[in-house]
Structures are given as C-alpha cells and as structure tokens.
Amino acid sequence: MKRLTSERAEIGLQVIASALAGVDLIEQRQPHDDDYSVDGVPTTVNGRTFAGLYLSLPRRAATRSCTR
User: Fold this and answer.
1) Number of neighbours of residue 51 by Cβ within 10 angstroms
2) How far apart are CA 30 and CA 43, in angstroms?
3) Closest CA to 32 of 52, 11, 47
4) How far is CA 6 from CA 3, 13, 25, in A?
5) Is residue 66 part of a domain?
6) For residues 55 and 61, what is the distance between their CA atoms, to the nearest angstrom?
7) What is the pLDDT of residue 51?
8) Which of 26, 35, 38, 58 has a 20 to 30 Å separation from 66 between CA atoms?
9) Do the domain assignments include residue 29?
10) CB atoms within 10 A of CB 21
11) Which structural domain range is residue 52 located in?
C-alpha cells in the first residue's frame, strides 16, 4: 500500500513464490577440537534445528532482443 495523498492511496499485489516446501534448517558449527577430521576434511557439529519455508519461482524464459 502506498499513500499518495491524505485522500488517495494505491494498493498492489506481488507474487513472491509459485511453490513452497517445508524444510528443516540445521546449524552447522566447527568443533572446538580441530584434531579430528574425516579424509582430511574437518568435521562439523550439528547444532540447533529450525523449521522454515523454501519459496521458489519458476525460471523466466530467456528474453530475446529484437534487431531491425
């Protein structure tokens, strides 16, 4: 909503997603003890879990430029 004057306003609608999915987000932290690794890669420790929504839009078709 955008107020133009004290007596006039504009109202609009915007699509932010065409599909959504519930997801679990898991915090990954580096361990305090860096002496432990798997195949040379330091491990991560899973922390808190958060519920979230994944919002997605379909990809737009590539726009073609017109040449005359």
Assistant:
1) 8
2) 7
3) 47
4) 7, 21, 44
5) no
6) 19
7) 93
8) 58
9) yes
10) 10
11) 17-56
